[in-house]
Amino acid sequence: MKRKKLRVVMAGFGNVGQKMAAMLTGERDRYPGLAGLELEPVAIVTGRHGGLVDPKGIDLGRALAQYREQGGFPAAPMTALQALETLDYDALVEISTLDIAGRGGLAMAHVRAALERGRHVATANKGPAAFAYAELAALARKKNVRFLFESAVMDGTPIFCLGRALRGLNVTGISGIFNTTTNFVLSRLEAGESMASAVKTAQQLGFAEADPANDLEGWDSSAKVSVLANFFMDAGIDPLRVDRRGITGVTADDVARARAAGRRIKLVCRAWRENGRVRAEVKPREVEAGHYFSAVNGRAAALRLEFDMLGPLWLLEENPDLMDTASGVLQDLLAIASES
Ligand SMILES: NC(=O)c1ccc[n+]([C@@H]2O[C@H](COP(=O)([O-])OP(=O)(O)OC[C@H]3O[C@@H](n4cnc5c(N)ncnc54)[C@H](OP(=O)(O)O)[C@@H]3O)[C@@H](O)[C@H]2O)c1
Asked: What is this structure's pTM?
């Protein structure tokens, strides 16, 4: 099959970027669906681990090997933003760190710069759609390019492409369990482990961040429910406006008491319409044993969509890992490649 080559700027080359690079190079034979896609970066820029820039194109497999062997790249000759503003490329792959305090931070500038120049965007970073979905989607429409973020919520689960396929349906409510780390920690608390030990286990298994505060305090969930509410309900909200309480105040006694009453504590995210506007919250809630949320165990995640004339509809993701996240960005890039 002839491969469609996309010239990209990669902002970030951490877990997700390296997994994408591996799936497109050394692991390519395992994924026949990627046969038609080739990524040729003209820049790969990180935060503290340098970068590579070559307008003629960088070999992705060699870049991955170099990063792994040398623990990073040489000092980057330009920032990701400068690369996006000056180089020739087809799409931005925005996979830098989520910045809630900075309202999306540099990722927002990266996405705006690419869209302004009429370049497509594929991002796993929740910041841009959580803080400025309406503005960025309008800019993408004006420039006739795609702004895609399939991995921003529940990794590669096809939520947003499902949303784009809906015809005539109005989403009236959203709920779900979106944060893997907190759901895992709550499951381990039920098994008698302490919160500190459960967080450490999650870190050792490689899915909790070194600083798990964004997860435990509910910021990651707030970002995800904002992305969903903005996309499906035209909410115009952001993570700082979500009524948020994480799981740091949940004790082993709380979990045991709920268990004894046949219930489980889950970090539940919700968005709904009230008095003409959309409200959103993230709160630990006791859910009944028979409720679908009660069956979301360990690292799983679930989304429930309510409509005016369908459903409710559920999507359940079992134990996602980095492959799932990388696959979401690759699904976005395949969509972009099929249209360019
Ligand atoms: N991992 C997951 O399972 C998952 C799931 C869904 C969504 N996401 C989202 O996907 C994105 C990437 O996740 P990850 O796990 O790959 O994170 P990560 O391993 O922490 O990597 C983040 C990357 O961003 C780079 N970076 C930081 N500031 C930058 C800047 N100013 N310009 C360019 N690059 C910059 C970092 O460089 P340094 O290392 O040099 O600082 C690193 O290469 C995040 O927004 C995350 O929230 C991740």
From this structure: 0.96
